Amino acid sequence: MAPRPEDRHKLVELLNEFKMENYFPNYLIDLLTYTGYSSCEALSLFEETDRNKLEEFAQQTLPELLSNDEKENFYGVFLKKTAIFRIVEGDKKALDKLVSNCRKKIKNFHSALDTQDRPLQGKSRGKSLKRSVARSVACKERYPDSIEVISVAKKRKQLNEVNEAALIENEGQSCSQHNSEANETTDETIEEVKRISEEHICNIVKKYQIAFLKQLKNVNNKEEIETEIETMKTPRVEVRDDIAYVLCHICGFKSKAYCVLGRYKQRWVLSNVNRHFKTHFKNLNATNKSKILTTDCEKKRTIYSYFSAKPLNENKKSASDCNNSSSDLLSSDNIGTGGSTEEEIQINNLEPAAPLAQNIDPALEIPNNNLEVVDLTSTSQAEYVQENLRQCSQPRRSRATKACKSREMQLDINQLKMTDYFDICEKIKCQIQECPSLKTEFTLSANLFFQQKNLRKNIDEFTDSKKNTPSDFFDAIKMAASKNSDVKAPSANRYPHDLKKLCLYLFLISGRLAYQTLVANIPRGLPSISTVLRSLSGYYKFSEGEVAMSELKDYLNQRNYPLHVFISEDQTAIVRRPRYNPATNQLIGYVFKKSQRTGFPKAPKMKSIVLQT
DNA sequence: TCGGTTATGTTAAGTCGGCT
DNA sequence: AGCCGACTTAACATAACCGA
């Protein structure tokens, strides 16, 4: 008798997974396979008493089934007296570890599937429970005379009480028939309540999803949305007591819906279900819906398209490929023409088919700092680039080597530092303070925002009192804080739309930490970062390097500005050595010659752009 | 007035990048 | 390489809002 090969193989794979294959004995693998413990599920249920049963099986049953050779391999030192076979102490430890690992694996698997088991921090879980209790208490206090709201759990409890009462009433009588009827009624009623709840939630969810898709349909790709509505499956709902789980038909995620006690009956809050559904259409739900882009279109709009003829994915190479392909990257075959994607925009002086290497002026002079400018057209410099490219795929240097390199690359004492600009800033500040008109302008810059007609209207509506309208930005914050302090929960805070816009601006220019500090110091006066980020997500998002020509043109037209623009670059960084990013096919670290007239780097490609009227 | 929706804040869990 | 803080994303939870 030999163990089934497939079962044995399954167990061995499990041991490999837990990296236990080196020290787990063969006889134990066989014994577990013989007794049906070859799966993770079975092993996760293994207990100490089962180990005794295994030993009994090996002592009594196995000797009768195994051949002499098999016995020799299996029993080892117990060969002469199989009746006293036992799993030795060291092997017991190995077995315990296997069982423990299997239990962990099963537990992780279930928690990944079930959102209810999502690990919450103790504090959060406690808070959540407290909130839930507080909610029920508050509801009862608010509506002391209201009709009792019966959730499925409460219904179950009540019905059990009725059954118990019935049992007591019928005590002494032969009432087995009645009992069985009562139990049947209980189960049927619970099932009926569940079914109605599920159907109800299902209808609401479907109604919401269709309405949401129809709303998109007006502005987006009609066919796509039409297909989505047609193929949309009925959502699967599972009600468990006061909570319902709605299975997303797109990704399979189980969103939680809550049962809230209403005035007369329970109602379901499906905000999480709806919000989850919306995430699948995030890109289609931008504020500027007419600007929805397909992936290809998006690629065409990026600066990348002006420099590379090959699609992004074709140029995408791993860091390990970087070394071998470095020479190809400098060839003109790999870097071709791009082209204008916006038909109405004419880009002058755009030099098509110019290899990247040729865009760098060979006669470029090294400025009075340590930034190195490289002539890529010469052989020696091309080798230099290749060497740098090779370095990017090399492992990190040791600390000692880094220290040596750092000493080698000590900065030129003439190099400008950030602190050098402090004096200039101070001088500007002094000039502003000394000039009355400038001082007034800067002081009121934020307040001027609040003197716009639309904003005043918005603030007036928010404050609901025309006599008490905010006179400036800080007054508006104060009012918001005051109004929000009247409500109980922080989630009930509300802010005027334009205050949120200004806060978004503050967040963007000052940064997260500065804005967080402001929020912390003005509780309920400024919206939280979450709210600010949410409002930001409502705006159209530009990806890195994207040339948003039509938006730029709209912006200029709206303000009657001339259709001439100057393009500069952001995110300028000082880097230690040139680098290559294979994902974007970009070389970072080479410096263009500065223009004598403007002081900006001379970019040989896009010298100027004229928007056609 | 009811019941679903919306706006808001909190939190978990993951990623990223700088520092040592 | 590992630590750690900043940042991102989306779920969770709550109360006010609003249309039928």
Q: Would you write up a description of this structure?
A:
It is built from 26 helices and 9 strands. The strands form 3 sheets. The protein has a 4-stranded antiparallel β-sheet with strand order 1-2-3-4. A 3-stranded antiparallel β-sheet has the order 5-9-6. A two-stranded antiparallel sheet has the order 7-8. Helix 1 crosses helix 2, helix 23 crosses helix 24 and helix 23 packs across helix 25. The C terminus is likely disordered. The chain binds a DNA duplex (20 and 20 nucleotides) through helix 7, strand 3, strand 4, helix 11 and helix 25.
Shape: elongated
Strand tally:
9
Terminus-to-terminus distance = 89 Å
What's the number of domains? 5
In short:
By secondary structure, the protein is mainly α. It has helices at 5-17, 26-34, 40-44, 48-65, 68-75, 89-113, 122-142, 152-169, 176-217, 222-231, 271-279, 295-301, 304-307, 312-315, 319-324, 326-329, 379-392, 399-408, 422-434, 436-449, 453-463, 473-485, 497-510, 512-521, 529-537, 549-558, and strands at residues 236-240, 243-247, 254-261, 266-269, 345-346, 564-565, 579-581, 586-588, 609-611.
